[in-house]
Amino acid sequence: MLFTSIEFWGVFIVFLMIFALLRRSTRTGMMLYVTIVSLGFFYYANGWLMQTLPLTALVSWSLTKAMRQYNGSKRKAFLTSIILLDLAPLVYFKYAGFVVFGLNRMLESNFALPDIVLPVGISFYTFQAISYSVDIYRNRFTQDVSFLEYIFYLSFFPLLFAGPITRAETFFPQIRRQQPVSERMLYYGLWLIIIGILKKAVVADYIAQYNNWIFDSPLTYSGFENLMGLLGFSMQIYLDFSGYTDISIGMAALMGIRLRENFCFPYQSLNVTEFWRRWHISLSTWFRDYVYIPLGGNKNGKIRTGIHCLVTFLLVGIWHGSSIMFALWGLLHGMALVIHKSMQHWLERIPNTWFTKVLCILVTGLFIVCSWAVFRSPDIETASTLFRQIFTNFKPESIPAFWAMRPTWMLIMVVSGLLLFIRERYYNRMMIKFIYSPWLMKLLAFAFVVQLAIEFHTSNITPFLYYNF
User: Measured between alpha carbons, how far is 263 from 278 in angstroms, rounded to an integer?
Assistant: First the structure.
């Protein structure tokens, strides 16, 4: 049951009415209710594999509670055990098949595992569990948390499938306050849901089908068509993921929980470092705080800093999947960050003019778009073919014919591309105007976006790209 389906919103409205009643009367009852619904939602998506979540919650919470009693080496041993136990299901479901395949190739054997299906949402709740334990280990989060509160935090269904990865210090204080949900919070949530549906169900789903054709068989299309497919996927992955995240944060806001943004106009970045401060913010900060800094961060000289950066982004790539293409994509971004950091002293001398900013955005965007080809392609041959077609078989004369055949696709791409570069202050002004607009205007805006989603709906589109990660 997807967040963009009519069935889900019917269930969610009923859920929200009961939630509102419980929230006013009993916090324990509210948390128990939401946890049961969340686990039921997780069971609907994963079947018997839903057991991984409550088992992870029980083990992680129990060992973290025991860890509080110790200091020194025992405390560190507890943390190591917790992290390994939290990671074990994720590593098995995500990488066991790849490891067995590699061993069979090396040893010329035929080992086989039962069919492995990756539980939806396992990456997000695993990372939240690890961050909770590490923050307690570091005394960054010191509050006592009951098991009900913990499993509520770990299974909270608006965040389960799309994130953002949420820290304990942000989440628990909010659920412990018995404050009513303000009108501003409700309308803020509605705004995000509308924007998210527009991004995901209208634009990303519509443009995805053509992108899939290109990456399935780039050799059968001209260079211009391949370029459009690459640009289309760059648009799709941002709008798909950020749209789904907007809906998640919006639903949490309707429940009185304010979460931090996960995307902040990433295609306006002036360099790769800035891109990762704007793209999937919760993931990039998670890897910064729990991988990069523990490795040593930037404290041990430029060479060691570069190695830490490469290792961190290799792991970011591997997190997305066991394909060599994801690892290569992570390394490309790691290398780009190392190069940017090493040149920062000279780059700071360049005048900060309008022309310089546009040039930086174009150069950064070119790298990001090219790296998406590596990310999306199933193998190196597909990515190589796509780039070879773009550079050797461009055929400018095919542009008018392409526009004539796909006018709606091209129009959506052009309009969406322009909207990606709207200034953040203008976006915030539109949001504030919506929040304080008459309720009839809000209703009309919501109905208009829902109608667009119905008009552009197609059953041939992958539901949500990050379900696979």
Answer: 5
Q: Is residue 278 part of a domain?
A: no
Two structure tokens written together for 129: 């569990």
Statement to judge: residues 191 and 159 lie in one domain: no
Token duo for residue 19: 């939630």
Q: What is the pLDDT of residues 396-442, one digit of tens each?
A: 888 888 888 888 889 889 888 888 888 889 999 999 999 999 988 88
Closest CA to 375 of 438, 332, 434, 346: 332
Q: Given CA atoms 184, 195, 274, 331 in this order, what sign does their dihedral have?
A: positive
Does residue 343 form part of some domain? no
Residues 85 and 227 reside in one and the same domain: no
Instruction: Supply the angle between the helices 380-392 and 324-347 in degrees, to the nearest 10.
Output: 60
Query: Could you read off the pLDDT of 334-369 as tens digits, one per residue?
Result: 999 999 988 878 877 888 888 898 999 999 999 999
Task: Classify the phi-psi angles of 265: left when phi > 0, otherwise alpha if psi is within -120 to 50, otherwise beta.
Answer: left
> Is 300 inside any structural domain?
no
Does residue 123 form part of some domain?
yes
Q: At 259, phi and psi to the nearest 5?
A: -110, 155
Of 153, 180, 207, which residue sits at a domain end? 180
Q: What is the pTM of this model?
A: 0.90
Q: Which of 154, 180, 206 is the last residue of a domain?
A: 180
**Calpha distance 450→452 (Å, rounded):** 5
Q: How many separate domains does the chain show?
A: 2
pLDDT tens-place string over residues 231-290: 999 999 999 999 999 999 999 999 999 988 999 999 999 999 999 999 999 999 999 999
DSSP H helical ranges for 198-323: 205-216, 223-254, 272-278, 281-287, 293-295, 301-319
Task: Show the domain range for 18.
Answer: 6-180
The stretches of 26-167 forming alpha helices (DSSP H) are: 27-46, 52-67, 72-107, 122-137, 147-155, 157-160
